[in-house]
Amino acid sequence: MLELRSKQILNATVLIAVTAVTLVMAPYTSIDPINLPKLCTLAFFAVIAVSLVAPRIKRVFDSEFRALVILSALFTIQLFLTLIFSGSSFEGQFYGAYGRNTGALAYISLVFMLVGSALVSDREFLKKFTQMTFVVGSLLIIYGNIQYLGLEPFPFNNAYTVKAPIGTFGNPDFQSAFMGLIAVLAFTMILNTSFKLLARAGMAMMGLVSIIVIYETLAKQGYFAFIAGAGTVATLWLFMTKRKTLAISLGGIGIVGSLIVFLGLINTGPLASYLYKSSLEARGYYWRAAMKMLIDHPFFGVGMDSYGDWFRRSRPADYFTNGFFSVSNTAHNVPLDIAASGGFPLIALYCAVLAVVILSIVKVAKRSLGFDVYFAAVVGAWAAYQVQSFVSINQLGLAVWGWVLSGLIVGYEINTRVKIKDETKSAGSKNLGKGARNVKQNLSSAAVISLFAGVLIGAFVAIPPYYASANYFSALKTGDLKVIQAAAYIKPFAENRFTQVAATLQGNKLEAEAIAVARDGTSHFPDSIDLWQLWASIPSAAPSDVANAKAQVARLDPMASQHQ
């Protein structure tokens, strides 16, 4: 389907992209050392991945991958419709909120990675992917324990529980979830009959150490992820080894258990007292706010990564009376975040992709002649990711795993079918063999042009937001207020820069300059309550401007009077 050399490059691109997005940080050059570097890295490699597919897109569309490609295209179209018609600012939607960066660019990139990983997925690639995962997991286990010992080598200010490992994710919840995923893969590899005893012992040790790191984070996500993933692997093992009755029974127990856990998360059922009386209690309010956003904006949502702009307008009426005063810029539930951001069409397409993944798992399990350990490991990791996504934030270092694992499962089902088209059989079987993988073949002129364009476009998309953040970071170091003020206007614009610069100018008694920055900031980000509040608080601001700013604050936070 793809040119041999294109497929080889795409193989490497997927592996490098997942590794880089997970590990990349920029503690010395960016105001956001975690999320923005991950977005830029993801976007760059995702564009390269799609450029490798572009010359053969018609063949891909005419192949067994048609359903996945159509869903991916529709998902991308809905993202653009949301950008245009949701009413939220373009810059905020495209690059995402500060500290999250899960806007349209992130999701477009994840879709590209989904398709790219599906096209390269086969038995040999799953082995390489698993090996890469263990390398990344080992690095994060080591780094996490360094943090736990209080030996953090980078200038991070850990605002979470003392010494709780945050890895390269910036939050112990994410580190915990990723360790759960690693534990699933490690324990699954114990079932690999091709491994010697020493290798299996090493896998068991890695699994145990991963669980220890989960304990160190003091976060529950990792346990949820591990239990779900391990249960999924156990069910697959029973099913593939022809113990279908036991497999169905275990699957049923898993479904019932998941339901009980879910009920506990919403303060119902036998686990309610354990699960709900924690930070998860606030999540119930975040979820209800997201559902209100979805119902009130059914077609295009409130805008990509715009949950924070709408939370105050959508939070439940009893939020304050029950002792909650915090503000959230995410639903702490990936599906609900997607639903609130892009409306019913976007969440429906996301669910359709998940349905294709589940159908692919069932198809492979039904036709397997024995236990496929690498496929089971990937499915277990996918299940682990999905479970944590229901109680956590869509952090890009984790999200890339969820989307790539989805692509690997769908692609594996298609690429390992017994009956496939003649083209796939003649070209694909050669490509899958070890000998063919070592064959050096030049790219066609169309592929070279497409790849070159992909590198340029990827750089064009990825560099500007990082460049702007890095320049702002440098401006802050100078301490020169004129330089800092100018940094607010570096494109692409960012709400947090306007807000921080205006606050800095106000704090240094440069009120006229602060008003100018606030005025310009609100013109680009009219739903930024922080900018409006800051403008209203400047003593020298015109009375009419103050009145307008207060009116905007009331629009954005209609229930503010309840907690004043």
Structure, explained:
Helix 2 (35-53) runs antiparallel to helix 20 (445-478), helix 10 packs antiparallel against helix 11 and helix 16 (373-389) runs antiparallel to helix 17 (396-415). It is built from 25 helices and no strands. 71% of the residues lie in helices and 0% in strands. Mean pLDDT is 91; it is low at 419-437. It has helices spanning 4-23, 35-53, 57-61, 66-85, 90-95, 104-120, 123-148, 172-189, 197-217, 221-240, 244-265, 272-275, 280-296, 307-314, 334-367, 373-389, 396-415, 422-432, 434-437, 445-478, 481-487, 495-507, 511-524, 529-537, 543-556. It is an all-alpha fold and 564 residues long. The longest helix has 34 residues, at 334-367. The protein starts with a helix and ends in an 8-residue tail after the last helix.
Q: Can I get a quick summary?
A:
The chain has 564 residues and is mainly alpha-helical. The protein has 25 helices and no strands.
Helix and strand layout, with pairings?
Elements lengths: L3 H20 L11 H19 L3 H5 L4 H20 L4 H6 L8 H17 L2 H26 L23 H18 L7 H21 L3 H20 L3 H22 L6 H4 L4 H17 L10 H8 L19 H34 L5 H17 L6 H20 L6 H11 L1 H4 L7 H34 L2 H7 L7 H13 L3 H14 L4 H9 L5 H14 L8
Return the average pLDDT rounded to an integer: 91
Shape: globular
Strand content: under 5%
Low-confidence stretches: 419-437
Oligomer: single chain
Radius of gyration: 24 Å
Question: Number of DSSP strands?
Answer: 0
Portion of residues within helices: over 70%
* Number of separate domains: 2
**Major sheet: size, sense and barrel closure?**
none
- Helix and strand pattern: HHHHHHHHHHHHHHHHHHHHHHHHH
Cα separation of the termini: 63 Å
SSE class: mainly alpha
How many H/I helices? 25
